[in-house]
Structure formats: structure tokens, C-alpha cells
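Example record

The entry below shows one chain as it appears in the dataset: sequence first, then C-alpha cells.
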Amino acid sequence: MNTLSFDSKRCERIRLQLDSYLSNELLVETAIEIVRHLESCEACSRDLESRMRVRDALQRAVAKQPVPDSVRAGVLRKLRESQPRSLPSTTGRRWAVGLAAIAFLLFSLFAGEWLSLRRSEQLIASILKLGVSDHLICAIKGHNYPEVANPPDQIRNKLGVRYAVLLQVVQERLPGFEVLEGHICSIPGSNRKYIHFITRGQGTILSVILTERNGTNLPKGQLLASPESAGLSIYEGHHSGMEIAGFESAQYFAFVVSDLSQNQVLQLARGLAPALNEKLHVTGHIFMPSANDGVADS
């Protein structure tokens, strides 16, 4: 397991070299030093993983992005202008100017998209972490569920009239999982409220969590999303040893969280999302409870 490193100056120096490390541009000795540092520094390892995901997303974007005719014409024009017309001694200079122009054109084309992808990735990570926080504190550390499943009527009573209708969706759309508990809870130090279903199946604990969006939306672009399920984009993430699949549903964010494989969690979320989204739209006037409502602290 990685441990935290508190040598900020060394971390700063390492991070300045991470892009060159990913591009295989460093001396062997320097690359080995970075590898050793990453083995003992969780923060720099997360930074490297983030850069790798951004690079992959950017490469996918570039591969799918057709080059506009205006850009192609500009590149060809610069190439023609870079061809030697007089003295041979000017050849190197002309080619350098031409290559610089090409680089500038390509950078201008993709820099904005790269920055947008990076911001979107950071937003998705912060939103998905909401679901993990509740799952870890309430289900894993707090063990706020029984070994034998609570009766459905008891779960509905805990959820209240507004949320009891969601129990049937979770029961039907998570094949092979038993709903042990359902309640409304909060995390110490936070005002955020969660509708939390805790299920058991395939040898592990899995949570289905809803929390109010509060005006925040997941990015609309599809480059960072998994294939849609009935028109809903599913976003994936990994945090604290847990896999997360999240989506927008009505005025909520909804999450499926477990230590199952990423593909398993994604498939479960894709099966759950359409029915859950439909139920929330049908109920229409679902709102998170106020501070005066009965909420169980995790």
C-alpha cells in the first residue's frame, strides 16, 4: 500500500517530470528514481494516474476529431511556404518555421478540448466520491446493517413515504443481491443527506446511494462516460479500494458502490439506472428531508 510523503520539495520536483516520464523521455536513472518515489508517495501516484487518464481521454478525442478543412489548408500552406526558394543555407530555418507553425495550429485546435477534459474529469471524481464517503462510513466502518435482512416493511418505514417506493426498484434491479437495510443518513461534519440502500451479494456488500445534486451537473460530453443506458450516461471512478458507477437521476446523483470489479459495478449500475430514473420522475415531488426529519447519523 502506498504511504503519504511529506517531502513537498521532492514531490514538486517529481511532478515536474511526470509528463516526461509518461512520454519515456527521461534517462533510465531518473525514471528509476521516479518509480521508487511513486512506490512510497500516494499523492504523486494519484497525480500520475490522473495524468494518464487525461492523456488517454485526449488521445481518444484526437482520434475522433476530424481536422477542419481550414486547419488542413493552413498546414499545407505553411508547408509550401517552408520549402526553400533561394539559398540552400535557408532550408533549415524555413523548415523550423514551418514545423513551429504546424505545432501552433495543432495546439490551438486541441488545447481548449484538453483543458475541458481535465476540468470534467476533476468534477466527475469529486461527485463520485460522494457515494464512496457514505458507503465507507455507514456500511463498512459503521456496519449500519443487520446480518439478517430487515423486513421490507421496516425498511419502508425508515425511508418514509417519499422514498419507500424506491425499495422495490433496488430489489428488482440488483439480481443476486439481498437488500439488508435502507435508511436516510448523514456523515459527521457534513450537512449532506443520503438515501442509502445496503445490499449483500456475490460475497460482498454493495450500496445504492442517492443524494441531492444541489444544482451541480455531470459533464454532458461522452468522452469520459461509459456507454449510455436508456439515454443515461454512466460515469466510472475508483476511490479507497472501491469501484463507483454514478449517474444523474431527476434532481439527484445516484451511485452504485462496491469492491467488485469495475465491469461488474458498471453492469449493475446500467441495469439499475433506467428504472430508478423513471421511478424518481413518476413520484415527481421527491425532496431531501430537512434537518428536523428523522435522519440517522452514520
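Notes for this example: Strands lie at 178-186, 193-201, 204-212, 226-229, 232-239, 242-249, 252-258, 296-297. The radius of gyration is 25 Å.
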